[in-house]
Specification:
With 222 residues, this protein is an alpha+beta fold. It is built from 6 helices and 12 strands. Helix content is 32%, strand content 29%. The longest helix has 24 residues. About 4% of the residues have low confidence.
Length: 222
């Protein structure tokens, strides 16, 4: 009986040694994780790049080559407005962090109005599907704003740990706070009743963005 147990123990030790040896032979993957929401590259000319996109410069076609074709493009508008043209990725992975990615295109209002007149309107919604010719022209439009809605909730401590100290904090409603990082072109939106957002735009466009937020905040003041 003792000999049997010793033999069994020897077999176990041999199997364990073989497993450890094979594990040691496997190469260690030291490749750094890229494409994370807080990895904002600041370029020499003052522009920024995130998710491989330079807001204000990268076109929709260029972004599509990088991000893939698994997106929807629609003009979003109420009856009395020109609206915005958006590319919508419903399942986007920023490294290990998943969420929704929306690319807002920089298209003049007069083009949006003309494209909307030729678009297919989804009944009961604010969504318009562009005519194929207009869709081809939209591919040349630069991306004005990148909006990433992570599947995880954010809080101010997390935002500060990843991006630093915001230059300003603007409250545009009882449940919505904007943490502003102009040099990074980032507006981190914390919403206690809805989705938290990370909105990226060109630092050159940030002053106008900030003024818009201040006006929105002023309208909320009783």
């Amino acid at each position: 009986m003792i000999k049997y147990l010793l033999a069994l123990l020897l077999l176990v030790l041999l199997a364990l040694g073989l497993w450890l040896h094979r594990g040691a032979d496997r190469p260690v993957d030291n490749t750094p994780v890229t494409g994370l929401p807080w990895q904002i590259d600041r370029l020499p000319d003052g522009a920024t790049r995130v998710f491989g996109i330079v807001p204000g410069r990268t076109t929709l076609d260029e972004a599509t080559q990088r991000l893939g074709l698994d997106r929807e493009i629609a003009l979003i508008a109420a009856p009395d407005e020109a609206g915005t043209l958006e590319a919508y990725y419903s399942h986007y992975s920023a490294g290990p962090i998943t969420g929704i990615l929306i690319l807002v295109l920089d298209v003049p209002d007069q083009d949006l109005v003309a494209w909307r007149a030729r678009a297919y309107h989804e009944t009961g919604t604010r969504r318009y599907r562009l005519d194929p010719d207009d869709l081809a022209r939209a591919g040349q439009a630069p991306i004005r704003v990148i909006t990433f809605a992570p599947s995880i909730s954010l809080d101010e401590a997390v935002v500060r740990s990843r991006f630093g100290t915001p230059q300003a904090v603007v409250e545009t409603g009882m449940q919505e706070r904007h943490l502003l990082f102009p040099e990074q072109g980032l507006d981190a939106v914390l919403n206690s009743s809805g989705k938290d957002l990370l909105q990226y735009l060109s630092p050159r466009a940030f002053a106008a963005w900030r003024e818009h937020l201040y006006r929105s905040a002023a309208r909320q003041t009783p």
